[in-house]
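Give me the fold.
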Amino acid sequence: MKTLRFAIALLTLSLTPAMAQVTLKLATLAPDGSIWMQAINDAKDEIEVATGGAVKLKIYPGGIMGSEKDVLFKIRTGQLQGGGFMGYAIGIICPDAAAVMFPMVFRNYEEVDQTFAKFQSYLDEHVRKNGYEALGWTEVGFSYAYSTKPIASLEALRATKVWGLDSPMLLELFKAGQISSIPANVTDVLPALQTGALETVFGPPTAAVAVQWQTKVRYYNTMQLAYSIGGIFVSQAAWKKVPAQHQDVVKAIFQKYCAQLNPKVRKSDLDALAFLQSQGVTAVDATPETRAQFEQLATTVREKVTGSVFSAEAWNQLEKFLQESRNP
């Protein structure tokens, strides 16, 4: 009887098709323990349960796979299948996303939420055309100007030593605004602030605190200069290997956790601004005149870079949705 039962068990196993298992290896610069990594890890666990182990994820946090440029190379060579990106890679995977991140486009989070909800499908389509699949978009937040001198106008900004980020949009903006800038890697910004080589820098509040700029700057302007987004993407080659019956599940779970990130990022930025002030960093309010000055400069530059940095189609779509949010 034992022999018979063993034979039946072997026959059953031989007739049962093996469950296909796909492992997606994703890399990100987000540090372990950050709110972004917490979201990715939660999505990872839920996906493995929801797919019965058919789809697994292996996450490489904190830049251990290199810069975003390095990660894109490893995706192309098959060493990785995707990543969570917030900077350089977004411009490669979806150049039209730059329209969302152009300076002075959004005035508040309400405009962001109403506009991006309509614009996301356009971005998803263009990500797909560029050989990737967007699993979810994440918020990086609004950037502010931090400085060692009070900046209440464009003229005051011109009089400081401004950090020059490696961005075609910002370089054109600085050029049009007659702002001299000094290029520097992110890791070199804090020492440059300390020596006086730089006096004005830009970034979201959470990031500014993370790199300890509050120890060297004394002011920040309350005007929200630019809104930034990131996202989680996999190559189309890898996505096609995910069983069709699991693709919607994987994407839905990632989108759920990415959506849950937004209020966390916003709270983190508010907490960071409060922390800056507790450390003696003074808020300089942006006047309506100053905002109008910066918006006019941004409009002039946007008209120049539309068609090169991002497509006219992208801007027309985004502007349409933006105006709908302002004039419901």
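The chain has one domain: 16-326.
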